[in-house]
Specification:
Four copies of one chain form a homotetramer. By secondary structure, chain A is of the alpha+beta class. The first copy, chain A, is built from 17 helices and 14 strands. In chain A, 48% of the residues lie in helices and 14% in strands.
């Protein structure tokens, strides 16, 4: 592995020459930009052994390609144990960061493409699988971060890719050359893209015969010619630029999404993993989505652990931790959080090998997992706000605590339990603000709805896999029909 | 009425000489401060006839004291029709502003104190009621905004007011003088306090015999000597200071909460409405809370109307308004919103006259109303985010749209339905961000939990009023027991 | 009023010569049949002043036709107070019986037809309104029970009435004669029909131009030639025939539904209230449904009162009434029940006069009311079972308690709190069984879903009345669009 | 294995000479009693290979004691695969029977006692483990059905076992003799006890030092001297005695619970597995409960499969299977059901070996599993009733269909889709009645709340295992506290 640890990772980003826009301005040094750095800190944790005894086993694993120890984020799942360990790793990193650590999209993209390129070669006589393995070996050896980029901007949702007024609403091949292809389009909501060395593009939906140019998958360096990144805004984002860590709530970590523009970007053939095989495109989507829906049964559970801790701490700081309704609400938070974890574990332990050897999660249960994630974090968040109290949205700013005319009033009047420093109480309440309605909420709430596919996407899969005909047979037999 | 309309109201605020701190700095011109002005614009709507035909009847009413046309916000409810009209007025203003318009606390305070001062005089031989009527006449004639201030900072929640380490955790009388009293303490979460001419203080809980100094109610001008205001932060608050109305989402309106410090403030006797009658204090809390819990069945329903409209609009802009699951989710939003409205109406139409003539809401149903408000807005908000899509938290900033290097990409790739301008789509999505996780969420979500008392406060009342003994009798009779 | 009280009512039923089948056999004396009598006892309560001081005002009212005191069940609502009193009456009778008291369908039918016949005459030049008033005067004077019969059997739900394989799937006119019409078809789920003197038929859906024969409304005596009743089964129904009141749970009261067959029944013109005016048929359905959806905000709330009492009593009998989670669950039951009540009150107090003078409920809120009734009773029932314990479905029979070999064991081992007779504990648990999974559940649960229209029927109305265009305008104005 | 198949099992029951009371009468031939036989048919399925290819692997397994093929119901879990296969077996049998198949209590008792006797011997120097293995070998070899009997009648729930007015409210040792012990008391809610050859008694709660006589575990034959069984009633139970399979709904299968009285029953020492070791008693309860809470993630999911099939079938029979809201409701039923399955799988795959070698489920997740089972089946049931329509509780009886005067009406008017026989439609609707409010509901609803411990029991464990201190640390680290 070339990138050996968190610091090396951060340094490695400095070498990329990317075109990045933040709040309307081109950023020359994104690595130290206060809106981006917390997200980089998050990804850096994926390189960090930390102090948890189980971290080595969870974060690192033996490559089936090289036999070397590699980051699990670059690994192809070889067993259901690998699938389970992925979820455990995600819970661990969710606990460390309390937000999205952004490297799962690459991992989930690798595993989806690994099996589909294999099956595509079998079906179409193509040679994508070896090419993809070569790329993966590079990723494992260099230990780079790869943005698995799927979601197109989509234009009018009621129209197919080929029927849009503007043909570029889905990323497509605009030119085939001897040594590669030229692509155009944009990928939206690209979590962690500003922290990635590489971008791995996949189609966003099952393409039809007349949509072959949209059935394209490839990898490019993040600083390839023609690529532009535009950072999205999050609630309370600019607090990170105010020099007031208290007001940020989660001062060290954050997530981040960007819009990536591909303005006629050249991709050499050795980095092209699908190009026209429209009938294979649906499988990439389905598998990437399933892996990523599994992921939410780990990462969001880790965040949930922190929120439960925050609820408990806030209740202690305010002298209500032994009140029965508070105890009951925290129990409910735990119950909901562990239900999500159960779903993450279940779809993993019920996984099965694909013909390529790569293990796939149970697709029904992975969709069920994510579908619960579109619901329970909202209730957990509501309960957390209930316990924390209204102060969450009425607290003064850090600068008020620094103003000698006002600070004494705040020290006196914002005191909770006598033995708790006022500032500690403020810190946990600001953290709760961040998680329920600030930057953290973008990751814990909105992303929980829409990441890896909006709720309806899961319902479609759940219904498709429900095997209603079989279930009708059970009912008929018992009711003595026919 | 002295203050005749919105502009006059705004000008009237300029005359107040208050001590206000915002983000750590004393503000000399709060009226034009970008963090405060949207909240002022909200309150100004309470002076604005607007273009709704029903507004005259809802916003204005004949005073029972003077027979003159006064603002309903200064009126004592004379009938259940008045109670119902209050809710209708609140729904109307919620629709106009999509946030808290901040003047209800005063109205609810007037009505609570009107009946309690009457009953206190009957029970204790005091003379508060006439005094209070004189004050109310002043309020009606001048048409000033009054902050009904109840919530104390409370310190350690497991201790009574008299048992706190610092005796000032609840506002109290520190000195009784010939011409008035001196008070000390702080009121937290004071909605609209920076937009008020007057502050009307009430006790925050039922006081006991040894807590007479805490059983105090009075009114003071907002610029009285010894008063300091410290503005609380809200999610994404400083976007209002960036000069980017797009990113604010709801550019014109907002709400606001401040911490008010009473540092030995003098109050003349003619503005004192309770002073030591501890056994009357609980009634003030109970009645103010009930009126204010009723209020949520109006104002939040108005906000809900806007959110339903935003969901419908976002779905149209993205070409999904005829998809069955989207239609069904919007129907659910309407159902939940109208359930809240039903609760607001029911507790009003079941109101009854108090001995003072002032009408009181049905206390059970008012608590049921608010208790539903602690739940449904969260589900409405979740459904809204579901329909809006992930773009809500990944949109670029207004400044990106203004940068000529990036703007063309955004115009091209963020296009939804072909006939909808990109900027319109962005506007509604930013509005949804504001309402579900920005400033608007502070009012629509957190305040819906904690405003007018946290959920458990309602449960205690609901249980107390449930008359379980009577219900046991019904069950016994039917089951033939005894 | 001819029928003056409960006993007179029961006697009056004996005079009817009806064709009734119960469990496969024709019943000669339905009035004393153990499966029917508890339902008759329920209806008898509508004639019973009882011991509640408010009963006189709720159960009886001055007729606007005659000025005489008549049963509210035969009254045309003259004000919103009448609408509110209807709900209060229903809550009172729900408390008395803990089931459906079956006379509301007639009342709701009267009120729907009163205004529609008026408007039909205006639109079509017909003379139904006077005819209907004559009929109503007869009903009021005789104080008879009338089954408002709407739901057709419907055949294949995906086909219109005129497109069914069998044209009789919706009640229709098969012959028009000089002195009347001949009708054929069946009405399903006819609550209280075996306790009624008269049947008032209405169309079940909005008919189209080619469906004029289905747009028919009329009244006939329950013992008219050609009518057959077939009683439906309910869970645990035959316990009523075992001579074991304990096992019945609610030994005195019950509800009942029958299928009514109209096998070429003759109706004289003076009892025909619609015959071919297809464009008026939808209004009858809509209004009857709205009135009946309002009704659920009264009657089921009364049942809820009893269930809350049963929960409290069962918890006392088992020594757990002061446990915090039990207290909290009972509070939740109260909260849900009062929310339903709020909806019943709100749609009533927001009612408005129709051109006929008859008051109509607020249609949006009446649908919202019923839609909540399709949900909350299930949760109330679940909480009740939670508190009651598993004994609800594992209790021995009354006959075991009567067997001297076994009774001592039961007396010893089924003892709960020391001061509570075993049999009292058994009685309340059997009552809970009845209400959550026995006969009572048919009325409290299934009927709460499907009575007055299944959930989707309400959603369609709610969406139709939501005025989304107006709400879109609010959102646009605030987001500064256009 | 001595009992080789379903028929042999049924015959084996005839040899037992038991004292059984049903509806107040002693039953001489319980095996053919219509109230008991459906439950016997259920247990017989545990002996039936059936036609599912996976049944052999799920129903049978190699004994770790003898190496022989034994029923999984008599097996000690040797791995997490065993734990998972247990859940899969339960889902399979749930599908076959659509009710409780009653043999899990024995299996869960074996596994709990296996590890606790081992640990008890280590701690106390007792010799229970070998004794228990001998007993287990007998069970495996004879392949008998064993009732795992835990729940005592408990008397006043607010009092400890030793503090009850009657000391027999918990099963206890009343005499210690040279060759055995004499026990007295009763076990309530004994699922499957009338179908069992043996009764395996365990304590129902953690006993204290002064409660040693209550810390007792033993096995006795079901026909031991001094044992009396009294069958509990279930909703609609006597329909099984009417000779109308249609009205039963699920005509072949059922469950059953009895009260077992131990009136000074002698137990030889070789069948005593705990006697006075009070500090070990809590572990038995905790482990039995955890295994049994896992079980619900299998069996109820199998029932759920049938209910989903019933919903789909009913919708087809009525022509509404392609309506969007019906499709959506069925999708929701699947989602909820698979969530329960995920919980069953997760607690199994996260199981771990105890010192005895027996595998224990993950206790947190097993409790989370059951806790969801106390909620979701109620919503599944509500959705099923929604889709089925009100006919579920208004259908005529089978006897009406057999009466030639009435049958033609029913054939004509109860017809749904033209190509579906009326009787098929009736069968599925009666089945749905059974499952949502008849005998089937006792197992699917009430048992889902209270079986293996009431909801609060799970919440207590969930909170205890939540490790809030650790979670507080995560929150503190991120909020930079300390």
């Amino acid at each position: 592995m070339k990138i050996e640890g968190p610091e090396a990772y951060i340094e490695s980003l400095r070498k990329l020459e990317r075109r990045i826009y933040v709040l309307g301005e081109r950023v020359e040094n994104p690595t130290d930009h206060p809106l981006i750095r917390p997200a980089i800190n998050c990804v850096a944790e994926t390189y960090n052994l930390g102090d948890e005894p189980e971290a080595e086993e969870l974060l690192f694993v033996k490559s089936h390609l090289t036999g070397e120890r590699v980051s699990r984020f670059t690994h192809i799942h070889q067993s259901t144990d690998d699938l389970v360990n992925k979820v455990l790793m995600q819970r661990l990193l969710g606990r460390r960061t309390s937000t999205c650590f952004q490297r799962c999209v690459g991992m989930d993209g690798f595993n989806a493409l690994y099996s589909v390129t294999y099956e595509c070669d079998q079906a179409c006589g193509s040679e994508y699988h070896q090419r993809f393995k070569d790329y993966l070996r590079f990723v494992q050896e260099e230990n780079v971060v790869v943005d698995g980029a799927m979601t197109d901007v989509k234009g009018d949702r009621s129209l197919r890719p080929a029927d849009q007024a503007d043909p570029d609403m889905f990323v497509r091949v605009v030119e085939r050359q001897a040594d590669g292809i030229v692509v155009r389009g944009a990928k939206a909501h690209q979590t962690g893209s500003l922290n990635s060395h590489e971008i791995l593009v996949m189609p966003t939906t099952a393409m039809r015969e007349n949509e072959g140019d949209y059935a394209v998958s490839f990898a490019v360096p993040a600083d390839a010619e023609g690529i532009t990144f535009i950072l999205g805004r999050q609630p309370s984002d600019t607090r990170k630029m105010e020099g007031s860590p208290l007001d940020v709530g989660n001062p060290k970590y954050g997530s981040q999404e960007a819009l990536i523009i591909f303005d006629d970007v050249f991709v050499p053939w050795e980095r092209v993993f699908m190009c026209g095989e429209h009938e294979q495109s649906g499988k990439v989507v389905e598998r990437f989505a399933a892996y990523h829906r599994q992921s939410y049964g780990g990462c969001k559970v880790g965040v949930g652990d922190v929120l439960i801790g925050a609820a408990q701490l806030a209740s202690q700081y305010q002298g209500i931790d032994n009140v029965s309704h508070v105890r009951d609400k925290i129990t409910e938070m735990v119950h909901l959080n562990e239900t999500l974890f159960s779903c993450g574990i279940a779809c993993s332990s019920r996984g099965e090998a694909t013909p390529s050897g790569c293990y796939m999660v149970d697709m029904m249960l992975a969709n069920v997992c994510k579908h619960n994630v579109t619901r329970f974090p909202f209730e957990i968040s509501r309960l957390l706000q209930d316990i924390a109290g209204g102060m969450v949205v009425t607290m003064p700013s850090q600068k008020d605590f620094e103003n000698p005319e006002v600070a004494p009033y705040l020290e006196k009047y914002l005191k909770g339990s006598a033995d708790v420093p006022v500032m500690d109480r403020m810190k946990i309440l600001k953290f709760i603000e961040n998680m329920t309605m600030g930057c953290g909420a973008a990751a814990y709430l909105t992303e929980s709805i829409h990441g890896a596919g909006s709720p309806q996407a899961q319902r479609i899969v759940i219904r498709r896999l429900a095997d209603l005909d079989e279930k009708v047979k059970y009912a008929k037999r018992l009711a003595d029909i026919e």
